[in-house]
Amino acid sequence: MTNGHTRVVFATGNRDKLREIREILAEAGVEVPVLTMKEAGVTEEIEENGTTFEENAMIKARAVAAALRREAQEEMETIVLADDSGLVIDALDGAPGIYSARYLGHDTPYSEKNAKILQQLEDVPEAERSARFVCAIAAVLPDGGTEVTRGVMEGRISHEIAGSGGFGYDPIFYLPEAGKTSAELTEEEKNAVSHRGKALRAMAELLFQK
């Protein structure tokens, strides 16, 4: 469905996330420009008021697509992608969930957020520390059609912060099969198993490998 005049605009301003997205799409064989919404000229704040990861991702994708239409940027076919992702901890009844980025406040460093979660789970035994990263990717296509994919990475909450790679909650998310936290994985290792990697590869297959 794509040609040399297609671009992807991703509804994010998170540079760490965008780097990861570009790497995963490139590894999936997607050879089109990938821009942030800001690079495409969209600077408006988007209110994420959905109740699921899928709803929030679609809210963002539709908002950016609408903004681009208003600006009449028609030089290239544009696929708008957005993700909503977060950490779901069973012992905290699914928290922080869809509020992962806003947990303890948008501007609170993740070092504090991670420390707070470890404190909350201080007395929780190993068998009950199960958790997962969830990512939903939403797409708005040039013809107005939409697609949604979902990826999940299962693991558990560690007992201490470990690793300097990744970002966000990676230093407290332990992967038993790897024997290390997500922040201790190389970028290649993480992209191969991550929730975002799974959701993006599924979306790339839907959009670019037909």
Care to describe what's here?
It is a single chain. The chain is an alpha/beta fold and 210 residues long. It is 30% helix and 23% strand. The chain is built from five helices and seven strands; from the N terminus they run E-H-E-H-E-H-E-E-E-E-H-H. Strands 2-1-3-4-5-6-7 form a seven-stranded mixed β-sheet. A hairpin with a 5-residue loop joins strand 4 (130-140) and strand 5. Helix 1 (15-27) crosses helix 5. The longest helix is centred in the N-terminal third of the chain and has 18 residues, at 53-70.
Task: Please give the structural blueprint.
Elements (H helix, E strand, L loop, with lengths): L5 E5 L4 H13 L6 E3 L16 H18 L6 E13 L20 H11 L9 E11 L5 E12 L15 E3 L4 E2 L5 H7 L1 H14 L2
Parallel strand pairs: 1-2, 1-3
Antiparallel strand pairs: 3-4, 4-5, 5-6, 6-7
CATH topology term: Maf protein
**CATH architecture title:** Alpha-Beta Complex
**Number of helix segments?**
5
Beta content: 15-25%
Tally of extended strands?
Answer: 7
* Major beta sheet, strand line-up: 2-1-3-4-5-6-7
Mean pLDDT: 91
What would you call the shape? globular
Query: How many individual domains?
Result: 1
Order of helices and strands: EHEHEHEEEEHH
Percent in helix: 25-40%
Notable characteristics:
5 helices, alpha/beta, Maf protein, 7-stranded mixed beta sheet, 210 residues
What's the gist of this structure?
The protein is an alpha/beta fold. 30% of the residues lie in helices and 23% in strands.
